[in-house]
Amino acid sequence: MSNIYLDHSATTPVDKKVLEAMMPYFSDNFGNANSIHSFGQAALAGVDKARKQVAKFLNCKPSEIIFTSGATESDNLAIKGVVKALHVKGLEKMHIITTKVEHEAVLEPCKELEKEGIEVTYLPVKKNAEVDLAVFEKAIKDNTVLVSVIYVNSEVGIIEPIREVAKIIKKINEKKLREWEKRRPQERGAKPQPIYFHTDATQAVNFLSCDVQWNFIDLLSLSAHKIYGPKGVGALYVRKGTPIMSLQKGGHHENNLRSGTLNVASIVGLGAAITQIDKRYQETNNARLNKLRKVLIDGLLKNIPGAILNTDLNNSSPSHAHFTFPGAEGESILISLDLEGVAVSTGSACAAGSLEPSHVLLAMGIPAEIAHSSIRFTLGKYNAGAEIKKVIKILPPIIARLRKMNPNYK
């Protein structure tokens, strides 16, 4: 059983205060939040409070928050829901822009939409996995309707320039509108179709500003279990006026956008978890994690010959340290560390079990054979210096042993 947990990008333990907030909604306030009676109203009060808590964190109206089962559902609803709504409005030849380093929860809906005739541009990235703004701006077309760029990459931790991406979109939308308004009323035709901006902020919430006004965001996805809340619950922010339609039917929950009885206890947990993340917490936590990460990185680079750091330390989440150890297979490293009581990952937990090399590393230009030798360390608020020192001691002999067993490594 692992006792050193360094896989916080996959999930985080539920904070004790979060669990305390949730407990009454399993037993005392167990009602259906859609029921009119007092049991239902007590449950609804918990949901309403959580909606306000999430809205306060994102700097938006509570009515703009849709509770979901997590960021995967939020991503699907954002991307497919907007396209569905625009299609109903009469738009046919639509174009979407995303990146090659998105989470599968964005890439797979986009691939599905391609089969339905939607054009999708997958932006290449720089060697550190960052989007090139000039390349992005050139990719925008007259029929571009949606842009989806991840905020923090779950594998290597790069922070994408989402505010700059959004400002480019805003500038283009405003220019289109100005040109339309300059025409005489009889020559105008339909109002120009704006481009909407979505970001998957799942890995960013703990560390960065997710103010949707400051960042000019129209749609934002997040999950509770990445911020010391429960699994199976998340939210989608939808700016008022953004066209979107539901993907599942069966009721009138969540402004008719997400049918299904609300997961009240978990929604309360999401609200309680996000309330703990204020600016002061972020600054203190980020500084502490940066120090721990530096110790980890310096120790591994010093003690493991040929180790390669794939995380850009100048522009990344303080939690991430992604390494490649040529000559040692990633899964073997993971298992060996687990036997020593250390939990890490080879990449996104949602892609675990796949034999394919990471699409993120390939997009960064890392060859497939080397990409298989990668390990992701992601630190959390409960990690201590002694744990990091233990990892620095344990890992070098593991890599040496695995390399010795590899006939192709010299």
Q: Can you characterise this structure?
A:
With 410 residues, this protein is an alpha/beta fold. 42% of the residues lie in helices and 12% in strands. The strands form 3 sheets. The chain has a 7-stranded mixed beta sheet, sandwiched between helices. Strands 9-10-12 form a 3-stranded antiparallel beta sheet. The protein has a two-stranded parallel ribbon with strand order 1-11. Helix 3 runs parallel beside helix 4. Residues 348-352 have low confidence and may be disordered.
Structure summary:
With 410 residues, this protein is an alpha/beta fold.
The Rg value, from CA coordinates, equals: 23 Å
Element order, helices and strands? EHHEHEHEHEHHEEEHHHEEHEHHEH
Write down the domain tally. 2
Q: What is the name of the CATH topology of the largest domain?
A: Aspartate Aminotransferase, domain 2
What composes the largest sheet?
A: 7 strands, mixed
Please identify the structural class as seen in this structure.
alpha/beta
Q: What is the number of helical segments per DSSP (H or I, 4+ residues)?
A: 14
Query: Any guess at the CATH architecture of the largest domain?
Result: 3-Layer(aba) Sandwich
- Please state the average pLDDT score: 94
* Fraction of residues in β-strands: 5-15%
* Highest-level CATH class of the largest domain: Alpha Beta
Shape: globular
Helix-residue proportion: 40-55%
β-strand number: 12
Query: Residue ranges: pLDDT <50 for 5 or more in a row?
Result: 348-352
The CATH superfamily title of the largest domain? Type I PLP-dependent aspartate aminotransferase-like (Major domain)
